[in-house]
Amino acid sequence: MKSIKFQASKKTKDNKGQMFIILALIIVTVLVMIKVSLNLSKIIENKRYIEAGLDHMEFLNIRNEFSKIVQITYSQPSNISTQLHEFTRFTRQVMSSRAIDFKNILVETTYPTITAGSSAIVNISILNGLTTQIQSLNITFGSSQQIFANMADLSTIATNFTITPSSNTNYTLSVFYNTSYENSTETITIPVEIGKSKFIGFFDIQIITNRGEFRDKFTEAYTL
Amino acid sequence: MGSKGILKILEAIIAILIIFTVFIMYYGAKDSMPEFQTINWQLKAYKALDSLKNTNDLRSYVLANNSLAIENKLRPLMPTDANYQVVVCDVACGKPNVVTEKMISINYMIAGDVNIFQPRQIVVYMW
Questions:
Q1: Which residues in chain A touch residue B23, judged by CB atoms under 8 angstroms apart?
Q2: In what order do the strands lie in the sheet with A212-223?
Q3: pTM score, whole prediction
Q4: Most buried in the list A36, A151, A168, A215, measured by CB within 10 Å?
């Protein structure tokens, strides 16, 4: 009995060196477990998500100001188009100074007070704020179509269509454009009301930050 | 010292090396803890400007170039642990003359007010 106890004690003494390695493995396991429980990658992901939320708030600010321009220019409808274009340039400058890309395309439709059975001219103006040239542009209003080519960045194309409505009618305006990176068709409903003059703005607004892209397309109609 | 003693020292060194290697690999400076305080400041400042805009005060103060009035109106809505300064500007905006390691900002845009088209930026600097 005494001999067995002596042998066991001797074996433990011989293994003391290996105990260091076993202890090291236990410590390493604990370290790894602490790291896993911290879940740092998830925290970083949450941070990115919140930062993207900030970008989205900034995007909404821009979007709402574009919409606001029509309201603040209400008493001078002839200035709406100029001011929308000026705000496009302003926004692009501000954004580019902070390494944010701002792109937009504006389709503005205006018509004078409509008299039933009489012809009226519908003016359609398109601003290319896509930061690249539009290679071809097709505008279809009702059954008439007009085609344009090579529309430079920050340039405007204005054209007229004639209508003769006998009652309130919804016309369809279709704008197709293609650039070096996208083809797009926008279909916009133009409500024509007898006895009224209107501005109908179609806005396609986009910002691209290093954390994501935000884009919105919307239409605003105002009686002038 | 016998060969057993040298073996024990060697094993102890291996053990220390294992711990150090794992520690450096997992706790290296690569993944530092993200800073949340500044993001919260930015979020609060944005919401504060939004609410000031909703009352229409923001537009009139911006057009009057009255950044002090904006600062005063923002005070109850801003984080209590942040110093801040409001700058109303066009495209190029000056920074406050403050010496600090940590300064962040948010930019807000205004197209104008009723019958006045005057696009301006409101920059809230926080430190």
A1: 31
A2: A156-163, A120-129, A101-111, A198-209, A212-223
A3: 0.79
A4: A151
A222 CB neighbours in chain B (<8 A) are none
**What is the spatial order of strands in the sheet that A144-151 belongs to?**
A144-151, A134-141, A169-178, A183-192
Tell me the domain boundaries of chain B: 1-32, 37-126
Cross-chain Cβ contact A50/B43 below 8 Å:
yes
Q: What is the pLDDT of residues B11-58, one digit of tens each?
A: 888 888 888 888 887 776 555 555 788 889 999 999 999 999 998 899
Distance between CA A217 and CA B78 in Å, rounded?
32
Interface check for B36 against chain A (CB to CB < 8 A): the answer is yes
- Rounded to whole angstroms, the Cα distance separating A43 from A34 reads 15
Give Cα A116 distance to the centre of its chain.
Answer: 40
Dihedral sign, Cα of residue B87, residue B92, residue B96, residue B102: positive
DSSP conformational letter for A194: B
Q: Which residues of B touch A91 (CB under 8 A)?
A: 109, 119
Q: How far apart (Å, rounded) are the C-alpha atoms in residues A190 and A196?
A: 13
- For B33, which residue in chain A has the nearest alpha carbon? A40
Cβ distance A73 to B22 less than 8 Å, yes or no, reads no
